Amino acid sequence: MTDETAPATTETAVDDAAALAEQETSEQRQVRLDKRARLLESGIEAYPAELPITTTIPAVRAQYAHLETGEETQDVVGVAGRIVFSRNTGKLCFASLQSGDGSRIQAMVSLAEVGDESLARWKEFVDLGDHVFVHGRVISSRRGELSIMVDDWAIAAKAILPLPNLHNELNEETRVRQRYLDLIVREDARKTVRARAAVMSSLRDTFTSHEYLEVETPMLQTQHGGASARPFVTHSNAFDTELFLRIAPELFLKRAVVGGIDRVFEINRNFRNEGADSSHSPEFAMVEAYQAYGDYEQMASLTQELVQNAARAVTGGSLVVTLPDGSDYDLGGEWARLDMYESLSEASGHEITPETPLSELQALADAEGVEVAHATHGKYVEELWEHFNGDELYAPTFVMNFPVDTSPLTRQHRTRPGVVEKWDLYVRGFELATAYSELVDPVVQRERFVEQATLAAGGDPEAMRVDEEFLRALEHAMPPSGGMGMGVDRLLMAITGLGIRETILFPLVK
Q: DSSP per residue over 224-247, as a string?
């Protein structure tokens, strides 16, 4: 065999295995469809509307955890679960029933308890993956396994397709595309869902403790804004107009501050028509918050508290989280602050300031092989900073004080010309959150929008447009404010160490 033919042979073997698996699945599907038909013909519901359930599998496990090996009770329960293991031994059948949280209990279906007809029906109709209801006494088996000695049972939901092999790991493609299977077979998938729920509750609790109000703002917008990003475009038949899926809720939340809601936040879905990788998804969750009479320093303190409280909620109180490789990551303490221009100058070996000519920045970028699209001073500075520093920030770090031209919604620094009061928070080398001292001067904001519109006319797809409605709101006076935004999916990444497709329950895939 030559080297040229080996890959083709391997690929053929993989294709053959996939085809065989598909054929086996198809055959099993037909067998189960036939069982469903026979159930219905015999007057038995394959998908009954209700069952006499009295408790849950987790509750039974908690209440009877004390039973000794072989100990029996006269306590009768009715529980339901999915069959994930089954074994028939003539006059006695065993099955493991799994609840939604992964808890399991053994069902023992014996000839002595249910009789010939019921036992025969079990053997004929019940398959792995079925949901079944069982009724009977709680006992501990001779092997010490908590069990239900079944005296009655019923199909709760007939599975037409078989479960994957529970002894093999699901590949990533299956986990993402068929998350329901991932949740059935993998405890880590269920833990991630619970972790996300804990994070959401923690975020709301922290905001509430600081007297923030939660609001909802439009997902469909006539004008996209609030971030530098490429939007998804759609069309409204009712209004016969072009609409955009929001890239950020910022401009509407600021309207709320203008209206007197001094502390406001939203946990929302955003959509950006850009790349997808291990830390980016076209559809993602964010939290944004604005505080009247605050600034970016106060937002840094708030964001640190939000992240640390979320970590405690997931870990049960610790600020040291365990990553998938077994290593620990410490989110505790006061987080470092790093100036963008100073750290770039140090890392590059060139003094770079807001006054550095564009030609010098371009020369440095060319020498480092850094490509910058739609080049401005600020874009060169940020791309160069990412090149020299972005991957180096492992510990939680606030990168402070950004260029003006890349931050059109941000207040000019109080003491440093050419710099705005903005930070980005980096955790384990990726950006987690950002915050500003907000630009509230409507005259300056209009000038910034016009500059952005010029960039857009020059072909920059991420540049903002002039938003007259937002400017009208600002002209009614917005108080000095601080604002922050943080990716919820990325917050899960920071706490769990997972990629973004694992932290989103049903991610968009091609």
A: --SSS-PPPEEEETTTTEEEEE-S
- Diameter over CA atoms, the chain: 90
Distance CA 162, CA 40 (A): 20
C-alpha to C-alpha distance for 251 and 409, rounded to whole angstroms: 9
Cβ 156 vs Cβ 133: under 8 Å? yes
Secondary structure letter of residue 67 according to DSSP: P
pLDDT of residue 15: 62
Q: Which residues contact 310 (CB under 8 A, 6 or more apart)?
A: 198, 199, 202, 203, 491, 495
137-167: pLDDT as tens digits: 999 999 999 999 999 999 999 999 999 887 7
Helix axis angle, 488-496 to 296-315, nearest 10°: 50
**β 397-403/220-221 pair status:** unpaired
d(CA 157, CA 464): 52
Q: pLDDT tier at 17 (50, 70, 90 boundaries)?
A: low
User: Strand 104-110 to strand 146-157: parallel, antiparallel, or no bridges (unpaired)?
Assistant: parallel
Residue 163, number of CB atoms within 10 A of its CB? 16
Phi, psi of 446 (to 5 degrees): -65, -40
**What pLDDT is attached to residue 375?**
83
SS (H, E, C) 259-328: CCCCEEEEEEEEECCCCCECCECCEEEEEEEEEECCCHHHHHHHHHHHHHHHHHHHHCCCCEEECCCCCE
- DSSP conformation class of 460: -
Using CA atoms of 386, 389, 391, 394 in order, give the dihedral in degrees to the nearest 10.
Answer: -130
User: Which amino acid, residue 264?
Assistant: V
Residues 6+ positions from 478 with CB-CB distance below 8 Å: 254, 257, 258, 438, 440
CA-based R_g, the chain, Å: 29
- 3-class secondary-structure state, position 419: strand
* Beta-strand pair 397-403/336-339: parallel
Per-residue pLDDT of 400-425, as tens digits, reads: 999 998 888 899 999 999 999 999 99
> How many Cα atoms within 13 Å fall on the side-chain side of residue 510?
3
CA distances from 365 to 11, 115, 360, 362, 387 (A): 42, 81, 9, 5, 9
Helix axes 296-315, 187-209, angle to 10 degrees: 140
pLDDT, position 448 = 87
Whether 145 has a binding-site annotation, put simply, is no
Which structure tokens are listed for 270? 């955003």
Q: Any binding-site annotation on 424?
A: yes
Q: How far apart are the first and last CA of the chain?
A: 36
Would the pLDDT of 13 be above 80?
no
pLDDT of residue 9: 58
